[in-house]
Design goal:
The structure is a single chain. This protein is of the alpha+beta class. The protein contains 3 helices and 12 strands; from the N terminus they run ααββββββββαββββ. A 4-stranded antiparallel sheet has the order 3-2-1-5, covered by helices on one side. The radius of gyration is 39 Å and the shape is rod-shaped.
Length: 230
């Protein structure tokens, strides 16, 4: 009987952790993707700001060139880049020129155009409004609502939330099943220790079948334990 009780205590209770591992892996992947996207977005934002500073300096230097040379100077703004005939400024991939423009400075650095130079970035639209005569400009920036990124973030959050809720529900069911199995094993152990053929406790009923060769314990019609005597 003692050997039977010892074998009963040593019965393993297995828990599946594959789903938990996959969930952790998926969340880690989402975090890495989000961090990578954030780093790339930060780099592009810095690159855009540097370009606009360079463009403003390039524009003012072009005015000074026209003044110092006492002649006309053309500032060509195209998608390939910005040129004044002496130097060039490349437009980065993070910045898009909406419309090509050609600005002509007179010998005092002024211009006779009310043109708008417009650029588009992920953060929004940047507009340089030119003024007639003095060649000055006014910079305006309109921030964009990035709907696609917002929807993507919402979708990722919804997926993670659904997975977490599913995992919580699954873990609860697994915990209840393990507790139920432990309770059944305790009742079975008590039945074996007391030598009873049937025992009901806390709503759990087990049946014990004994003969000279083996002991079998049943719960809800299914064989729970089968121990052969040696």
């Amino acid at each position: 009987m003692e050997k039977t009780i010892e074998k009963l205590r040593q019965l393993p209770i297995k828990a599946f952790t594959v789903l938990e591992s996959l969930l952790v892996l998926m969340i880690s992947s989402f975090i890495l993707i989000a961090l990578s996207t954030s780093v790339q977005a930060s780099f592009e934002q810095i690159q855009s700001k540097i370009f606009f500073l360079e463009f403003e300096h390039f524009y003012q230097e072009s005015q000074k060139l026209s003044t110092s040379s006492q002649g006309k100077l053309v500032l060509q703004i195209s998608k390939q880049g910005i040129s004044n005939g002496y130097a060039q400024l490349k437009i980065p991939k993070s910045v898009q020129l909406l419309e090509e423009e050609q600005i002509q400075f007179d010998k005092v650095g002024g211009n006779s155009s009310l043109s708008k130079i417009q650029f588009q970035t992920k953060e929004g639209r940047v507009t340089y409004q030119l003024y007639i005569g003095n060649g000055k400009f006014k910079k305006q920036q309109i921030k964009a609502t990035i709907l696609l990124e917002a929807l993507l973030a919402l979708g990722i959050f919804s997926i993670i939330a659904s997975l977490l809720l599913h995992q919580i529900s699954y873990s609860r069911r697994e915990t209840l099943a393990i507790l139920q199995k432990e309770e059944v094993l305790r009742v079975a152990q008590m039945a074996l220790q007391t030598g009873q053929d049937q025992l009901q406790l806390n709503g759990i009923q087990v049946q014990v079948q004994r003969n000279k060769d083996q002991i079998r314990v049943f719960y809800q019609g299914e064989e729970l334990i089968h121990v052969e005597k040696r």
